[in-house]
Amino acid sequence: MDNNEFNEYNQEPRQYPRQNSQRPRKRVSKETFRKRQFAALCVIAFLVLLFVILMAKACSKKPSSDSSGGDAVPAESQTTDVNEEASTEDPAATTTVTTTTTAPVIDPSKAGAIKLDKYTVYLEVGQAPALALITEHPDGMEEADEVWSSDHPEIATVDEWGHISAVSPGTCYVTVKSAKDPSLEATVKVVVAGEPSLEQTANNTTTTTTTKEPQSARAEAPAPSKINDPKAHYEGDVLIVNKSYSLSSDYNPGGLDPTCSEWFNKLVQGAAEDGINIYLSSGFRSYDYQSQIYNNYVGIYGQDTADTFSARPGHSEHQTGLAIDVNIIDDSFRGTPEAEWIAAHCYEYGFILRYPEGKQSITGYKYEPWHIRYVGTEISYALHDIGPDATLEEYYGIDSKY
Ligand SMILES: [Zn+2]
Question: Which end of the chain is more exposed for a tag (fewer CB within 10 A), N or C?
Fold first, then answer.
C-alpha cells in the first residue's frame, strides 16, 4: 500500500502536462484523500498507542500514590524491600512490593523501639528500687503511656514507674509496653542473687549507654581536693597519674586523701550490708616505697614484665593517696563475690575500677580487680554510664605510655 502510493506520486510530474485542468484536480484530490486516509490511520494508531502507554503508567502509579498516606514509613525501608524482593525494574513488581510494605498501619521501624539504659539487672533479695529507665521513647509514646509488668512477680515485682524490687532468687523478665500501642515494648532480664549467673554482671552490662540513676539513691561523693605538686596533671578535677603522667619524687601526702578515706569507709559499710567483706590491703605508697617494690619486681621478672603490673616510681596512683588495693592483691581475687561486688558497686561511692579487663593497651596495666581509684561520684557515674570497663584514658582521650 505504501509503495503503491509512492509510485503513483512519483509518476505525477510526467502526467501533469497532458491532463486538462480538471483531471489533475480530480486525481490530486484522490491522492490527497488517500494520503489523508493514511495520515488519519497513523494518527489513530498513534493515539491508541499513547492511550495504552498512559493507561499502563496510570496503573503502575496508582498504588504508589495510595502509599503516600503512610508517610511514616521510612523511605529506606521501601527501598530495601524493593531491592530484596524484586530485583527487576519492572513497575508491576515494584507495585506488588510497595503494596505489601505499606499494608501495616504501624510503622515497622518503630516496633520495639523503646530503648532502655540496661537490659539485664542484677539484684539481691530485698534490694529495691532498681529503676530500669527508658532512655528513648519511640515517636508518639510518652512516659505516661508506660505499662510495666513482671512475668514472675514472686521473683521480682515492678511498679507503675518501672521500679523493680527483688523478691526471691531466680530470673524473670520485666516488660514495658506502650498503653496506646502494645506492639511497642522492651524487656529487662532481672537476675535475683542466688543464681550462678551473678558473676556475669560485669560482662553483661558492657553495652550500657546512658544510665540515669534515681537521684534519691545517688550518693554525692565530692571530687578530692587538688594536690600541691607542680608536676601534677589534671583533666578537669581529676588528677591523672599513669605511664604518661607522673608525680614529683618529693610529693608525699603521708597517707590517704581524707575524702577518699571517708568514702572508702562508706563503701566497706555498704558492702557489709550486702554480706560482702571488703578491706584495705594497700593504700598510700610513697615514691621511695614504690621504688623498692618496682625494683624488686624488675629484679625478678625483668623490666618489660614488671611494667605490665607495677608502676615505675612517680607513676604509681598509690602515691596520690587516692588509690586503694582491696582484699587479695593477685589474680586469685578475680571472679570472687568481693571482686564482683567491687566491680558492680564501687562507682556508687565515687570509686572506679582503674584497670579493667581487656584495657591493658589503654591503661598500660593488666586487669586489676582489686585496684580502685577515688574520683568522686560525678566522674564515677559518668564512667559507669559508659560501661563497667570505661577508663579515664578513654574518657579524657589521653595516653598511658612510658
Ligand atoms: Zn594498686
Answer: N
